[in-house]
Design goal:
Length: 348
């Protein structure tokens, strides 16, 4: 099988962290989010991957190159304009020569069993198989309904309580699909096409779309809170990854001062420094950032080259690259600090 990973979105909900990088290139502990996806695909024998790019594509290709360092073949297509999820797959058509294609959103983290997905797809004779994950409340998602054979019968966007049926499972789109070539052939070329709103309903209407419910770990990393939660899951071992660790992560050249308290659910990026007596809990500190003496971070995401002054306190705060938090400032969120912004102590 080949895989197409959709990495072209601008990641507006993840700002300010995506002001300077594509969302799939955000470091999730020691490697970009999309590299965790590549690791997962490789573990399941998928080594031919097409990255469908749009926003800051050069950063992605510069990092992964041809994929040889990962034992994979990686190629790239760049959408000339936003083409939607199906349009982006269609734009990669010239590079696809497999009869079965794994398509995946570039901002999810999962340990889905791709072999079981493939087996279910082939057994059903489906044109497309949609991975589904259960949720307690589907109101913020799109509910997918299946018949007893797991054929998709209905999509219900952001259902209210009155739309729900007693006892039904709340299954939502988990962002990984296995598509036969016929689905790719049915996508119109040269325009924006949504795979969720246009392609899948068309395939379902013909009886060719099936669901694959899975209890595998799954997280949509769509905003800073989800990004921090995914980081904590990786550090705690809630999902299998290729990262060798036993709790907190210190990148190459990172330094932690005397008496500093960096807990087991913290990431200190490459070249970052945590000053004496500082406290970093359930937080991400970006590359080359500086956390001053006695500063306190909890549930915070601090971008690259940020300077947090002595005694400053950040709780539930996201800080864009290159920002400066003056000594003694107190920021209690949820809130964000823009890329390059300076926050004086009086503002906190």
């Amino acid at each position: 099988m080949q895989a197409v990973i959709l990495v072209g979105g601008e990641g507006t909900r993840m700002r300010p962290l995506t002001d300077t990088r594509p969302k799939p290139m955000l470091a999730l502990v020691d490697r970009p989010i999309v590299e965790h996806q590549l690791d997962h695909l490789r573990r399941h024998g998928v080594r031919d991957v097409i990255l469908s790019c749009g926003y800051i594509p050069d950063a992605i290709e510069a990092h992964f190159g041809d994929g040889a360092s990962l034992g994979m073949r990686i190629r790239y297509v760049v959408d000339p304009e936003p083409l939607g999820t199906a349009g982006a797959v269609k734009n990669a058509e010239a590079l696809i020569d497999s009869d079965e294609i794994v398509v995946r959103n570039g901002d999810i983290l999962t340990d889905l069993d791709l072999g079981a997905l493939r087996d279910a797809h082939r057994a059903s004779g489906a044109a497309g198989t949609l991975t589904l994950t259960p949720v307690d409340d589907p109101s913020a998602f799109g509910l997918v309904r299946l018949d007893p054979q797991r054929r998709v019968t209905e999509f219900l966007e952001k259902p209210c309580r009155e739309d729900l049926l007693p006892g039904e499972p709340y299954l939502i789109n988990a962002g990984t699909y296995l598509l036969s070539r016929s689905v790719l052939d049915a996508i119109p070329a040269g325009r924006a096409v949504s795979i969720e709103r246009e392609t899948f309903p068309l395939v379902a209407a013909g009886g060719g779309l099936f669901g694959f419910p899975s209890d595998a770990y799954w997280r949509d990393i769509g905003n800073p809170a989800a990004y921090l939660a995914a980081t904590l899951d990786v550090l705690s071992g809630a999902i299998r990854t290729e990262i060798p660790h036993d709790g907190r992560w210190l990148g190459d050249g990172a330094q932690v001062g005397d008496g500093a308290d960096v807990d087991a659910l913290a990431v200190i990026g490459r070249g970052a420094r945590v000053g004496p007596g500082a406290s970093v809990r359930r937080s991400v500190v970006g590359e080359e950032a500086r956390i001053g003496p006695g500063a306190h971070l909890v549930d915070a995401v601090v971008g690259a080259r940020v300077h947090v002054g002595e005694g400053a306190r950040l709780e539930d705060v996201v800080v864009g690259d290159g920002a400066v938090i003056d000594a003694g400032a107190r920021l209690v969120g949820p809130l964000s600090v823009a890329t390059g912004e300076r926050v004086a102590a009086a503002q906190g």
